[in-house]
């Protein structure tokens, strides 16, 4: 019995590790998707994750100002966990933890803040001690965000075959050319929304690894 429990625990941990260890993206390396496109979540917002994995917004540190860069159209392959696409696109996958897709972000805008600004506000000015209070939580600050009014996610035929629920929301791209990602979901918004973000873990001691 004990051996069986150990095996199940090992398999569970292996699945979690696989889901978290994603291949590198062709665009937006190390970026993550917001659970839903949103107007909050700007660079400078601090959030924490407690010991149960629950996410809480701590504070939008307004003294950390963001800068803006117009990036044009971004197109490239990105990798997501199945849970990320369930919350973002309402797609449920069957026995597929890592999902590759081609992402097109039309007229992307990048918001970002500089490391020197973050360090000054958090550590030189002592803001970090006001933010980091729960020793059982991990704290993160959003460093960059990608905004757009129009984003498209494209999937391969093999990936679509593994969609358990939500495949009816995909559109097949009609073309004479053979495409690697012939099925797509397009999301359009009246105003620019934050879709992806890049974060950095923060601690009381900046040199505590």
Please indicate the count of domains. Answer: 1
Helix content: 10-25%
Order of helices and strands: HEEEEHEEHHEHEEE
Count the helices. How many? 5
Main sheet makeup: 8 strands, antiparallel
Number of strands: 10
Terminus-to-terminus distance: 38 Å
Q: Per DSSP, what share of the residues sits in E-state strands of 2 or more residues?
A: 35-45%
- Low-confidence segments, ≥5 residues, pLDDT <50? 2-19
Mean pLDDT: 90
* Protein structure class: alpha+beta
State the shape.
globular
Radius of gyration: 19 Å
Characterise this structure:
A hairpin with a 5-residue loop joins strand 2 and strand 3. The protein has 209 residues and is α+β, with helices and mostly antiparallel strands. The chain has one domain. Strands 1, 2, 3, 4, 6, 7, 9 and 10 form an eight-stranded antiparallel β-sheet that branches.
